[in-house]
Input
Amino acid sequence: MTKTVTMKGNPLELCGTPPEVGDDAPDAVLVTNDLDEMKLSDMFGRTLVVASVPSLDTSVCNVEARRFNEEAAKLGDDVTIAVVSMDLPFAQKRWCGAEGAEHVLTLSDHREAGFGNAWGVLIPPLRLLARAVFVVGTSGKLSYRQVVEEVTNEPDYDEVLQAVAEAKTG
Output
């Protein structure tokens, strides 16, 4: 079943279907700020939060990524928070420097949209990612999924943090 989100009330169909809780987390090759390739599966084996955002250069995405940067500093070394967007790595690196974001990992899906397709969050006509947050447990299985219905809204941070706490203990 294809998922639909809205942007300013206008419906947008996503490419594919987001994985379900309990599924193996899909893999994808992303690009780091230094233009190196990184497989998402390289981070499996620890608690992983993957937040997809349309663009760090928008106000809501900026607020969300800064919030996750603050939370990442508190969660400890056994949790990684990755913020994935279609932004170019240069823009992500600039954003990290401007915001002092040292605790989140920003990754770009701009080359092949492999993450957007595999995780069912690509908005094809805009070539942007929908706003979503996933928590992957140490087993590599998805333990939490939140696809934000209205792309211009922030996710429910309390729910995400509760899911991270549960993933760390379970």
Q: What stands out?
A: Residues 12-169 form a domain with the Glutaredoxin fold (CATH 3.40.30.10). Helices lie at 59-75, 89-99, 114-118, 157-169. The radius of gyration is 14 Å.
